[in-house]
Amino acid sequence: MFNNSFSITVSDQSSDEHADKKLRARVRRKSKKFGFRGKTEFTRQVVRQVLKWWPFLLFLSAAALLIFEVSRIYGKSTSPPPPQTAQAQKKPDHPHFEKKEQGNLNRLDPTTRVVGGVRERCLKLLAPEELERLVFPQQRVSNSPIKKVVYITETDKTYGEGNFTKSQHGLDGTRFNLFTGYQTLDQRDQSFKVNKTATVHCGFYSEKGGFKISEEDELYMHECEVVVSTCAFGGGDDLYQPIGMSEQSLHKVCYVAFWDEITLAAQEAQGQKVGENHFIGKWRIIVVKDLPFRDQRLNGKIPKMLAHRLFPNSRYSIWVDSKSQFRRDPLGVLEALLWRSKSVLAISEHGARSSVYDEAKAVVKKNKATPEEVEVQLTQYRKDALPEDKRFNGKKALAEASIIVREHTTTTNLFMCLWFNEVVRFTSRDQLSFPYVLWRFKALKDINLFPVCTRKDLVNSMGHVRKAKLLTTLHIIMLPRVIFCIAVSLAVIAVALLALFSPLPHTKPAKDSRPRLALSLYIQQPKIGGSNLHSVAPSDAGALVFHRTLTEGPENTSRVVGNAQGFIIPIEHFAHSAFNIIYLTFNSHKHSGSLSIQAKELANKEKKELMVVGGTGSFAFARGLAVFAQTDMQGSSHSDATYHVKLHLKFPNRSQTIPG
């Protein structure tokens, strides 16, 4: 590029084999460093892009998380669980289980037992012709000391207040809520006392408590005098049609099945379609909304124990668990279990155990309840002095409550309220609380604890088809997820606002913010005198050492602002050498300092673009581009031409002013 002063010969062909090996080794090492630099540069580019677009990436992540959570909430709160057939629930190691259960369906054969060497039927019903002529007995005058039962509601100022609050309810580990009311231990003790007017919590405490039924269904329920009821919540058991009833019972008895929307969808998916008259076969389907408990077993206690609240005008009710098919005439069952024995409540004895304490151990062993909650219940019962007797009045103290037959009297109604409150306060296993309520509530005496074989004669046991799903209504289960989604939504909005209104620049922040400087200068021809040295390096070898004047204009007479000097080895192996540097030194009132320009581009071109790699003084930390162009393309050779230099400089962000 430049050639004046003198040249130093440097041969490209070295005869020294050892030096040649060193040179090749150095080239290979540089190649490895170049590859490493490439990886480092790629990493820097990735980091740079991440730092540049982090608000957008954060926004996408938050939006994706929000959509995912909303879809889970929507799916869980509106979609029923995928229907499962009975076959899907059977255990593979019991191949005959399905045949056994399906074989029980629609069986009408009686269950018998041997008494005194004679086989007799467990449930002795009237003959079919007598059942057709059977009429309800006249309502007898009750000799019960309880004449009236008052149910506590939140509007009752006298009994609605107490020392039991929602926060205490959580601490006590109970499940009292707006449906049950918040019964205190003092109120619990008072409810067991026999008074002429009994006051008790018995569900339906508040209009906001849940268990909503349509007005049309309520009108139907109010017209029932005798009701056979069952329920399936959470997509649980299938619905089995009752059999074995007389023609008279079909006209006098209501068959009611309580479902929730999950069970409705699951049954419809299996082909159990509810007709326009709200019936499936003989069952009137009543869909309950806004169930008050997460535990579906506890929701099932409402129609099981509070039939007198749901059917206020009914004289009699028969409860049948959803795992069973009722197969006897309801009026004949009332006659055999209540009227004939002059009882007001009939319930089956437990088939395996007799003591509540033995039952508690079995409940824990079968994982029907946690050891902690069972221990809380037993501790309270021991404190109340519940005896460990296995028999009350000559009969088992423990009941198997899958079938409950009762007359709706003030005594039985109060008994069922007390039983329901115990189930809510402690575990959902009603077998544990039944003996306690029976022992403590002294007013109920006319009770028929019939044997297990009688229960087997009343129903065909089908077993539980599938496990009921936990309640997933928004106000119980989904509330934490809703709160989480609201928080994520606020975070998304915050990120969007930050991305839109952040004071930090979002496009090319480095280029737009760094100070710049542009200069136009000239490197003049060497002044040739009589004694001035002027040697041209050979085309294939040489070291070019030059020193020229730097002016503001193209003329030789222009004002001098500095010097251009350098040392260049035009050999390919030294193309990236630190020796090949052009120094522009400035000595003017505007600029004082120097610039270093890397001269690695050695091809003979009229216009060269070289990199500015540093500087001193006013040009400290300068980076940029230096464009060299020969001014006289025809009159001068490359070695003695005048060059026009355009400098485009960039400086880092600093507090000091831009030079010049």
From TrEMBL:
It is found in: Secreted, Extracellular space, Apoplast. The chain crosses the membrane at residues 53-70, 476-501. Residues 174-464 form the TOD1/MUCI70 glycosyltransferase-like domain. Belongs to the plant dirigent protein family. This is Dirigent protein. GO terms for biological process: phenylpropanoid biosynthetic process. InterPro entries: Allene_oxi_cyc_Dirigent, Dirigent, TOD1_MUCI70, TOD1_MUCI70_glycTrfase_dom. Residues 77-108 are annotated as: Disordered. Homodimer. Pfam families: Dirigent (PF03018), TOD1_MUCI70 (PF04765). The keyword Transmembrane applies. Keywords: Apoplast, Membrane, Secreted, Transmembrane, Transmembrane helix. GO terms for cellular component: apoplast. PANTHER family: ALKALINE CERAMIDASE-RELATED, OS01G0749100 PROTEIN. Dirigent proteins impart stereoselectivity on the phenoxy radical-coupling reaction, yielding optically active lignans from two molecules of coniferyl alcohol in the biosynthesis of lignans, flavonolignans, and alkaloids and thus plays a central role in plant secondary metabolism. It comes from Coffea canephora. It comes from the Eukaryota. Residues 90-102 have a biased composition (Basic and acidic residues).
